[in-house]
Amino acid sequence: MSSPVVFPRTDATILSDDGDSLTFCSTCAFSQACLSEGMDKRALMDLHVLVEHVGPLQPGEHVFREGDSFSAIAAVRAGTVKTYQVDRDGHEQVLGFHLPGEVIGLNAIHGDRYPCNAIALDTVMLCRFSFPKIALLATRLPNLQQHLFRLMSHDIGVASLFARDNSADERMAAFLIGLSRRLAARGYSSRRFQLTMSRTDIANYLRQAPETVSRVLRRFEREGLVHIKQRDVEVLDMDRLHELAATVLRD
Amino acid sequence: MSSPVVFPRTDATILSDDGDSLTFCSTCAFSQACLSEGMDKRALMDLHVLVEHVGPLQPGEHVFREGDSFSAIAAVRAGTVKTYQVDRDGHEQVLGFHLPGEVIGLNAIHGDRYPCNAIALDTVMLCRFSFPKIALLATRLPNLQQHLFRLMSHDIGVASLFARDNSADERMAAFLIGLSRRLAARGYSSRRFQLTMSRTDIANYLRQAPETVSRVLRRFEREGLVHIKQRDVEVLDMDRLHELAATVLRD
DNA sequence: CGAACACTTGACAGCCCTCAACGTGAGTGG
DNA sequence: CCACTCACGTTGAGGGCTGTCAAGTGTTCG
To answer: Residue B249's closest chain A neighbor by CA?
Structure first.
């Protein structure tokens, strides 16, 4: 909990930028920008020189804290990052869970300070991008600029998903389906995966009581929707789960 | 309701771009970008040539509809624009109310289609910006690029404010305080203003029943927090209202 | 082995949604 | 000027979902 902020002091953890970077980043959030046609080799090198590899971070280590001055965004390379705020009563509010390939820190550009905390839930690897530098580079690389616009535009809609007044069942189903899809998009299994966060974190994210999360998951298990052992999830009936989630995900 | 989509066909409503544009836009969402130092007169002209003045739109007219192909963002110049989605059961979900000086359409960049509908609640004037053009211009004007980044970054955090675990009172107070602040930021009165949206829209936005909105507002009135006549609001006790809203707004 | 923590399960209550009825104001046509 | 209509808003009664409180179980780690 009292671990140091690792973000502003990455010097010790920056890996050398060897030739493997190109393949190393093939699953990164910026791969589309990097690999898209129309970006010449020189430009690609500029982007890769910009990257600082950070980590590994241990569970409980913070990536950045609320109020830290904003200087960089980061793509999750491995592990899960939780973003959260703490209100003046000390209550935690989970804003999101960020999986490999996803970008954190975009909500800090406005305001020049991080508006939330970011903490590693397991062993986390990051790619750090100085924002002034990547923004400058984006003026020379329209594809990169467009990619940044898209990333931010995407995040605008995500937060409002679980703000709806859906039932506990629907939100939980949507949460599981969402995880499944995001993992599948990065090449992981969509049917079997691990919950890297506690029931309490899930409850907090879905705006429910931890007891409700527990009850709903148990009921899902009894009804044959999923099989859950500790934090290992196996989806048994993707269709019915999807049907439940549909009112939240709108599809 | 069945009014045509006015956004893709602005030709008839584009006003001439006379010399008054510079003063006309002084309260616009892009004024900071336009007027900031470091942007030469040539660049400023480029931006102003880009603008298409749209409107006036009548109440009930749509700015764009969900699924329309994305081509432009727009700054609200006057009036209020409501954004909303409709789920497959036909239920409406209000995403936000957009006041003068605020920008709509930023959540459409990702996906190339508008993910929601936008409708005028009263008489609305807009400034329309072709997104490909303004993005291209942003590669030459770092201040403009930075401004677009900030606008999007800001919108990322807004949606998560009214999540469900706050009480009806707290959310209503936060809604009123939020309106008050946003109006004040644009030069309007922070103590007296009009609700341009119906109780039903407010309820939908706050994830409550219309009856709850009605009851809460009446109670606020009985307790001397506000004076409400129809849709005219007068804030009588800003401090107590702010105190109520604090748990939602986090300040 | 014991302590701390996470998770589960049950009982109960409260907030708010639903359903229903009524009041109010604006616009219309006679 | 008034009756009428219709959408919007208000008010009341009742019930369900889920949060709160409490206790018990399982797991991890020193």
So the answer is: A87
pTM of the model: 0.87
Name the domain count of chain B.
Answer: 2
Structural domain range at position A185:
162-249
- A122 Cβ nearer than 7 Å to chain C strand: no
Rounded CA-CA distance B225/B239 in Å is: 9
Residues 121-150 of B with CB under 7 A from strand C: none
Task: Give, as ranges, the nucleotides of chain C with any atom within 7 Å of a protein CB.
Answer: 6-11, 15-20, 25-26
Q: Which of A124, A141, A159 is the last residue of a domain?
A: A159
What are B109's two structure tokens?
Answer: 């960049």
Rounded distance in angstroms from the CA atom of residue A244 to the C1' atom of nucleotide D29: 39
Interface test with A, best of B93, B160, B175 (most A CBs within 10 A): B160
pLDDT tens, N- to C-terminus, chain B (251 residues): 444 445 654 443 444 444 444 545 555 556 655 555 456 666 677 777 888 999 799 999 999 999 999 999 999 989 999 999 998 888 899 999 999 999 999 999 999 999 999 999 999 999 999 999 999 999 988 988 999 999 999 999 887 777 667 899 999 999 999 999 999 998 899 999 999 999 999 999 999 999 999 999 999 999 999 999 889 999 999 999 999 998 888 77
Query: Rounded distance, CA A172 to CA A170, Å?
Result: 5
By Cβ distance, the residue of A136, A150, A162 closest to B110 is: A150
Do A131 and A237 reside in the same domain of the chain? no
Give first-to-last CA distance, chain A, whole Å.
39
List the strands of the sheet with B232-235, edge to edge: B192-194, B232-235, B226-229
Residues of B within 8 A of A200 (CB-CB) are none
Q: How far apart are CA A87 and CA B247, in angstroms?
A: 7
- Domain-located, residue A152: yes
